[in-house]
Structures are given as structure tokens and as C-alpha cells.
Amino acid sequence: MQNYTSVMEFTLLGIPNTEGLEKMLFVLFLPFYLFTLLGNLLIFLTILLSSNLHTPMYFFLGNLSVFDIFFPSVSSPKMMLYLMGQSRTISYQGCACQLFFYHFLGGTECFLYTVMAYDCFVAICYPLRYTIIMNPRVCTGLMLGTWLGGVLHGRILTFLVFKLPYCGPNEVDNFFCDIPVVLPLACADTSLAQTVSFTNVDVVTLTCFFLILTSYGHIVLSILKISTSEGQCRAFSTCSAHLISIFLFYGPVMLIYLRPASSPGLDSVIQVLNNIVTPSLNPLIYTLRNKDVKLALRKVFI
């Protein structure tokens, strides 16, 4: 390409149709972000300090709390800065890092929800063999697998998007760098990168979602075989919090990446819900519906 000039930075345009509302949005989003950090940190420390919570289910819940601390931190700090009137520009490397960590952590959380569904499946369908099947070695291996799977997922997507040349324009029509808003800025044919990247996201999302549905299909059948209503309620309460978190996580992901055509305004609203609101709800979901966590929290505070 003649007169080729590489883009050194991008400009984040922010949430569409919110001009003049930056300070109000900052006041609205900051409490959600702080509550997300403090709430998930509190759950992680409670699980770490409470010996009665050192079980596979709470081991995975502790990891989920860690992810819910890091995941909104990919985009929220930069968004808070420009809502306060700071620069909206982000370096080329910073944009690539945002995209990588967003999909690395998102993919890891996707795999983690699948592992947590399998944990619920074993706990309810094979309660007598639970401690044998979900032994520390298996739990550690599953956790390492989610991390490595997330890293591979994030690296593939980042390579596909940023191997393309970018020579302008450099305005990202969102509040952080993601595939649907960065790819259109490339100075080359993006059809292959777009097809492969969205196929990658779709395959990971739909495969994990199918495995989760399969696990919960067996769980429902096992719960229906329980003779007493008290036993059915106890079994359902074991996995109800996880089910709520799954729908809150997968709903926005499917709306963004599985739709045939994207809409910047709608995508930004969904991303706000996915990045800021949903991670702040997980501490409430797992504490309000879990007696063991509430008891452990009281002991920690005392």
C-alpha cells in the first residue's frame, strides 16, 4: 500500500447518544464497579479463610469471584476516566490488550460456568461418589484447563484482528475495543478475520452452553426422581444460584455475537450490562441464596 501510515492510537467514542450525560453516567457506574470489586473480593477472602468452604463447589466459586474482579476491570477504569473528562484516546497496544483480556477472561468464565455445571451434575446425580470424582487433582486440572482454554481463545482472536493493517480512521464506536467495532477500521479485507473470529466465539459459546444444558438436563431428571419435596428443594437450591449467573452471563454474549447484524447503540447497552452490572450481581446471588456463605461471612466479620 502506498502512503501507508500505521495507526498508533485509537479514540473511544464511548456509549452512543450519551453526549452531555458523562458525569451522570460516572455517578451511576462508579458504585456498581466499586461494589463489584469489594463484593467479589469479600467472597474470595471468605472462601479462602473458611475451612468449611474448602470444597470443590466453593473452589470454583472463589475462582469465579476472581474473574468477576478482573473482567470489568478490562474496560471500566478507562471508561471512568473519560467520563470524568480525561482523554478518550487509547494506544494501539492498549486497544489490543483490551481485546485480548476481554476475550481471555470471557472465554475462561465461559469454560468455568461449564465446569461448575459439571460439578453440580456430579453432586446431585452421583452424591456418594462426589468426593472421589471431584478430588483435588481433578479440580485443579479443570481449573487449569479453563485458564489455558481462555488464553488460547483470546490469543487467536487478538491475532486475527490485529494482524490486519490499520491506517485510519481510528475512531472506535464503543467505550472499549472489541471485535465488532475494531475490525471495520482495518485497511484491508476483513471478511476472513470476521468469519473466523465470530465462528470461534460462536463455537466456544454454543459448545459450552450445550454442555451446560446437558448437565442440567440430567440434574432435572435426577431431582424429579427424589421422593420428597424437601429433598427436591434442597437439590434445586444447590444449583439455582449457578443457573441465574449462567443466564445473566450468556444472555448478553449471545445477543452481541450471535446476531446476524450488529447495532452499535444496542451493543453498547448490552456491553454495559455485561461488563458492569452483571459482575456486581454475582456476590448478591451467591450470598443471598447460600446459607453456608452467609454463615461464613458472619464468622469472618465477627
TrEMBL record:
Record's subcellular location: Cell membrane
Organism annotation: Odobenus rosmarus divergens
Any one Gene Ontology molecular-function term assigned to this protein's record: G protein-coupled receptor activity
Regions that span the bilayer: 25-51, 57-77, 111-130, 142-162, 203-224, 236-258
Function recorded in the entry: Putative odorant or sperm cell receptor.
Pfam families listed in its UniProt record: 7tm_4
Descriptive protein name: Olfactory receptor 10D3
Keywords tagged on the record: Cell membrane, G-protein coupled receptor, Membrane, Olfaction, Receptor, Sensory transduction, Transducer, Transmembrane, Transmembrane helix
Membrane topology value: Multi-pass membrane protein
InterPro entries on file: GPCR_Rhodpsn, GPCR_Rhodpsn_7TM, Olfact_rcpt
GO cellular component annotations of the record: plasma membrane
Sequence ranges assigned to domain G-protein coupled receptors family 1 profile in this UniProt record: 39-286
